[in-house]
Every structure is written in C-alpha cells, then in structure tokens.
Design a protein that fits this description.
Blueprint lengths: L9 H6 L19 H13 L5 E8 L5 E7 L9 E6 L7 H16 L4 H9 L1 E5 L4 H9 L52 H12 L4 E9 L3 E4 L11 H19 L4 E4 H4 L7 H8 L3 E7 L14 H20 L6 H5 L9 H7 L9
Parallel strand pairs: 3-4, 3-5, 5-8, 6-7
Antiparallel strand pairs: 1-2, 2-4, 6-8
The structure holds zinc ion.
Organism: Sparus aurata
Pfam families: Peptidase_M14
Family: Belongs to the peptidase M14 family.
C-alpha cells in the first residue's frame, strides 16, 4: 500500500484558521466568522436591506441559540415560488456557512443591477439558514475544530450529539448511519430527535406548497448530489435531476475550472439514510440537492480562508442555475443557453420566454 502525506502538520493547519485565536475579529466574507459575528451580521444586513430581506426565528437549538431563517425576495401580494437553502448542518464544514453569508451579500448587493439576481428575487423568495447546527459550529470554534454532530445530551450515554444529516425521517437509520451514540454518524434516538432537525423539518412542511427547491451545503469532495442516499433505487425524477446537476456543474466549472461530479448520493459518495435532501424530495420538493464544496481532500475541512472567495463565486453560479430552473424564472434563462443540459426539460412555452428580450437582458 502506497501512501502520501497530505498535511505535514495538522495542528499548524488548524492554528492557521485564525478564528481559533482569542482576538475578536470583525465580520468578513473572506474569513470564517464566529457565530457571535454572524448574529450581528444578520441584524445589520436585515436592517440595511430596504425590506428586501426579513428574518424569522424558527426555533431554538439544544443549547438555546435562536435559529434564524433569512427570507430574501421582493415583497409581493401574490404567492411566490421559493427556495430553501441551509448551510452548516455539519459543524466542521466551515466553508458552508461562509457560502450562505456570501449568497446573502450577493443577493442584496446585486439586486437591481444584476439582471439574473433581480429576476430571481422579483419572482421567487429565497430562504437562507446560514448555520443549521449552531451549537456544533460554536463548539468547533471554541473546543474541537473537527466536531461534526449536534451537542445534545441524553441520560444513559456519555456521548454527545447526533448527526443531523442522519436524523431526518427518510429511510431513517437503515443504511450508512450508526445506532451507536458515540459514532460520528449516530442517527439519533428517533427521527427528528434533534431539535434543530425538527425545527427545519417543521418549517419546510409548513411552506411545502411554495418551496420548489431544497439546497443543502456541505464540504468537502466537490460533488453535486441528489436523491437517493438511503437506497440504491433511482429517484422517479432521476434523469431530470441529473441533467440539472450537470448544467449547474458546468456553470460552476466555467469560472475557475473546478470539477464537480454529479449523481445520486448512494452511488456517488456513500449510502446514508436520514439525510435532509432525501427527506425533502420525498416530501415533494423535487429539486433537492446536496453540495459538497471544495476541496477533494488536500485541506478537507481545513480549507484555507484564501479559498473562500473563489469557492463562493463559483458556487453562486451553480446555485443560481438550479434556482432559475426550479422557479422557471424569466430573465435568468440565459444560464440555460450557456449551460444547456437541462434545457430539454423546459417546456416549449417556457423556452420561448427564455429567448425573449428580457431573457437576453444581461450581458
Ligand atoms: Zn456534511
């Protein structure tokens, strides 16, 4: 067996992620921000958004932190289709919350100037949960950089937390999950035993008539996954989901050449029951995707801060592609002609909208 050393000094790499240093730092889109900084950032962004963004608490975490969903979109008297996106289900995947913050910045700062973003927010609402597993995220900043799970406790076990992405009610704990509370992939004591999972599932259930796409952001591996992960069976919409994933991956690759692999979770990464994407899909949210962002293992969870900007920039292209496709958003269709694999699934009437002057508006 041959081997190679990826990281010569792991502690030095951990220490290099400056948030572990005690000195407080201001919020930055190119740094890994602490939960405290993200809370303050959410408030200031909401109040300066001229009504384009509102925030709503969907419940508290196990340790009592408020889970806040940001709703971005032009106010409308009619019901708009929506997208739900969460980041930070797994605590140590720091690039994920960084992307949600980047997305909010881009949405608010380019609305009115970027024609694709403007069309998107005029015609759809985007729900963003910047950090799903807040207790775990905070723990990775203060105690254990490589923590993954929630921080819930149960009498009778000295082990803490469950894997929130094994705790959804989708083939729960049947494969690729552990019933051992000490395992990193512990599925929890029951489906939705983790309060964070229950809060998100309740929110999506309440809004399922409007939510057309569910996006969940993880790292690492550079994959764009879709159902199923709890079975090797193909999803009923497999072909369309694959085409949209390929289109989104092409859009992503167009910026810096970063290659993503697309496919069902079970065969593309590993079988994993109880995942949020499978659950959302079975609930009826057709365009349900899991992103595994950079890299492919050189730094893994310890992705250097210098890669936050390019990672977020390229990921924006894929997210906008899926969002536009799911919402059939006029004016954002240009992306389908640039990266056309999904175009065959768009109806003729919708495609003619794509070729309209509005659709051509952006340079
Ligand atoms: Zn993850």
């Amino acid at each position: 067996m041959e081997h190679s050393v990826l990281i010569e000094d792991l502690q030095a790499a951990v220490d290099g992620q400056a948030d572990l240093k005690p000195t407080p730092r201001a919020h930055s889109y190119t740094k890994y921000n602490t939960w405290t900084d993200i809370v303050a950032w959410m408030s200031s962004m909401t109040s300066s958004s001229s009504g384009l963004m509102t925030k709503q608490v969907i419940g508290n975490t196990y340790e009592g932190r408020a889970m806040t969903v940001l709703k971005i979109g032009k106010a409308s008297s009619s019901t708009k289709p929506a997208i739900f996106m969460d980041c930070g289900i797994h605590a140590r995947e720091w690039i994920s919350p960084a992307f949600c913050q980047w997305f909010v910045k881009e949405a608010l700062s380019t609305y009115g100037t970027d024609s694709q973003m403007t069309s998107l927010l005029d015609q759809m609402d985007v729900y963003v949960l910047p950090v799903f597993n807040i207790d775990g995220y905070d723990f990775t900043h203060k105690s254990n950089r490589m923590w993954r799970k929630t921080r819930s406790r149960r009498s009778g076990s000295s082990c803490i937390g469950a894997d929130p992405n094994r705790n959804f009610d989708a083939g729960w704990c049947s494969m690729g999950a552990s019933s051992n509370p000490c395992s990193d992939t512990f599925c929890g004591y029951t489906p939705e035993s983790e309060i964070e999972v229950k809060n998100v599932a309740d929110f999506i259930r309440r809004n399922k008539s409007t939510i057309k796409a569910y996006l969940t952001i993880h790292s690492y591996s550079q994959l764009l996954l879709f159902p199923y992960s709890y079975t090797y069976d193909l999803a009923a919409d497999h072909n369309e989901l694959m085409k949209v994933a390929e289109g989104a991956s092409s859009a992503l690759r167009s910026l810096y050449g970063t290659r993503y692999t697309s496919g069902p979770g079970a065969t593309t990464i590993y079988p994993a029951a109880g995942g949020s994407d499978d659950w959302a899909y079975d609930l009826g949210v057709k365009y349900s995707y899991t992103f595994e962002l950079r890299d492919t293992g050189r730094y893994g969870f310890l992705l250097p801060e210098s890669q936050i900007k390019p990672t977020c920039e390229e990921t924006m292209l894929a997210v906008k592609y899926i969002a536009a496709y799911a919402g059939r958003v006029v004016g954002v269709y240009r992306s389908f002609k640039d990266f056309s694999p999904a175009a065959q699934y768009v109806t003729t009437a919708e495609y003619s909208l794509a070729a309209s002057p509005l659709g051509q508006a952006s340079a």
